[in-house]
Every structure is written in structure tokens, then in C-alpha cells.
């Protein structure tokens, strides 16, 4: 029996991680202004100054920020964002198949094994990448939230100040809502996608082809975004807040609900 040629052999783990990291980094550069706009919309109600610019929509935030602070302000925190993609997204993408194989040893892959693999994979990635998430969010958020002076002068300055003033665990703030968000995303994406594809194929409005997969993916993405948005907003505020502002994640959520109403959980 002939062995695999160099072109047929599967890529090594290192090559997979590198490829996933590069792909995720390129996507991050393209979408980073959207991410910055979402973060600013999610935290702007915590601003301590009444003269601060108020944003109303994602597009409006991007336009206003580019006009008032310059286009490069949309990329504040990009180095931390790229570090996040290298440590978070690359691991999620590259290790998913290996973890799924662990859950499906001796049996066929099913929805339960895919969800289990996604949750385990996401949990590991969150633990490793959370410090980069904390720094990224704090650099993206308006500096006026915590006084007239910027909190940090750059990415590595942010790591150092957070570690020295809040302790090493300060770099893992917001881990609980971030893990919860991963659970919601992993479960909702897979379940909704499978249910929609099954319904479309069964009722035969379209065949099991590219359009079917595209429609299923769009609906799954919409449902996932809606369901994970409340946890995402709480995660962003927990990460960005000053020490002592919230006693816990649930305290943050309750204060948002009582002071701003349910709509606060869907900002951005």
C-alpha cells in the first residue's frame, strides 16, 4: 500500500494553527472598526462626563469617530485584537477537529459531540486569550469614561498597568460571561443550523446545496447574535469597568436592567 505523498498528507498542527491565525488576523483587520463601534455603543452609558459624544448606531459611531478623532482611532487596540486572534481564534479553529475526534472515538459524529467539542475548545481558548480581550476592549472604549486622561498609552502599557494595579486576575476579568457567551454561541449556532437545514431539505423549498447551507447559516448567525448579545454587553462592561464598580457579573446585569432597561442588553 502506497504511503501518502507530501501533497496528500494532512497539515501538521503547527501549520493549521498558523494558517488559522493568519486568516483570523486578516478578518480582524477588516472588521475591527465594526468591533470598536460595538464596544463604544455598549459602554457609553457609563460615561462620567455629560459632554461626551453620544452614539446612536454602529455606522453612526464609525462615521462620528472617524470625523472627530481620525480614522486611526477606529483601530485603537488592534495589536491586542491581533494577539487575541492568534491566541483565541487560531486555537478554536485548529484544535476543533482534534477535540471532536476525542469525543467521537469509536462512533459517528453527531450534534452532541460537535457541541461538546465546541464548548471544550471554546473554554480552552477563552482561558488562554482572555487577557488580550481585556486589553483590546479597554483600548477601544472611550477614554472619557474614566476621566480626562487616557487610561493607557498603548497595548503593553495596558498589560503592565492592569497587572500591577488590579493583580494578574485583573487580566482575566469577564471570563465568566465570556465563557457563557461561548456556550450560547456554540450551542445555538450548531442546533439552529442543523434544524434549519433539516427543515429546508424536508419541506423542499430548496435542495441540499449551497443556497440551503447559506440560508441556514444566515438564520443561525442571526439567532446566535440575538441570544448572545445580552451576555456580550455584560462581558464588555465587566471587562472595562474600574475595580469595585460591580460586585459580580450578576450585579452588573441587574444594574443595567434597573437603570437602563432591557434594551441595554442589545446595544451594538
UniProtKB/TrEMBL annotation:
This is Mitochondrial brown fat uncoupling protein 1 isoform X2. The lineage of its organism: Eukaryota, Metazoa, Chordata, Craniata, Vertebrata. It is found in: Membrane. The gene is UCP1. Solcar repeats lie at residues 11-102, 109-199, 208-268. InterPro entries: MCP, MCP_dom_sf, MCP_transmembrane, Mito_Metabolite_Transporter. The keyword Disulfide bond does not apply. It is a multi-pass membrane protein. It comes from Balaenoptera acutorostrata (Common minke whale). It holds the Pfam family Mito_carr.
Amino acid at each position: 500500500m502506497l504511503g501518502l505523498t507530501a501533497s496528500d498528507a494532512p497539515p501538521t498542527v503547527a501549520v493549521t494553527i498558523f494558517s488559522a491565525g493568519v486568516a483570523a488576523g486578516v478578518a480582524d483587520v477588516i472588521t475591527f472598526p465594526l468591533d470598536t463601534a460595538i464596544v463604544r455603543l455598549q459602554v457609553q452609558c457609563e460615561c462620567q462626563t455629560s459632554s461626551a459624544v453620544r452614539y446612536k448606531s454602529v455606522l453612526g459611531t464609525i462615521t462620528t469617530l472617524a470625523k472627530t478623532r481620525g480614522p486611526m482611532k477606529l483601530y485603537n487596540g488592534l495589536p491586542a485584537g491581533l494577539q487575541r486572534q492568534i491566541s483565541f481564534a487560531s486555537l478554536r479553529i485548529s484544535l476543533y477537529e482534534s477535540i471532536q475526534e476525542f469525543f467521537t472515538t469509536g462512533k459517528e459524529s453527531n450534534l452532541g459531540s460537535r457541541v461538546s467539542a465546541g464548548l471544550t475548545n471554546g473554554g480552552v481558548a477563552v482561558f488562554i486569550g482572555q487577557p488580550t480581550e481585556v486589553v483590546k476592549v479597554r483600548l477601544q472604549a472611550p477614554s472619557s469614561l474614566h476621566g480626562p486622561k487616557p487610561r493607557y498609552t498603548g497595548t503593553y502599557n495596558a498589560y503592565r498597568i492592569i497587572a500591577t494595579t488590579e493583580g494578574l486576575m485583573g487580566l482575566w476579568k469577564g471570563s465568566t460571561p465570556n465563557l457563557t457567551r461561548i456556550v450560547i454561541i456554540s450551542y445555538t449556532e450548531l442546533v439552529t443550523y442543523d434544524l434549519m437545514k433539516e427543515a429546508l431539505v424536508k419541506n423542499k423549498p430548496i435542495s441540499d446545496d449551497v443556497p440551503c447551507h447559506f440560508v441556514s447559516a444566515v438564520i443561525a448567525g442571526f439567532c446566535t447574535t440575538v441570544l448572545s448579545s445580552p451576555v456580550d454587553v455584560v462581558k464588555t462592561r465587566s471587562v472595562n469597568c474600574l475595580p469595585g464598580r460591580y460586585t459580580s457579573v450578576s450585579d452588573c446585569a441587574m444594574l443595567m436592567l434597573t437603570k437602563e432597561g432591557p434594551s441595554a442588553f442589545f446595544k451594538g
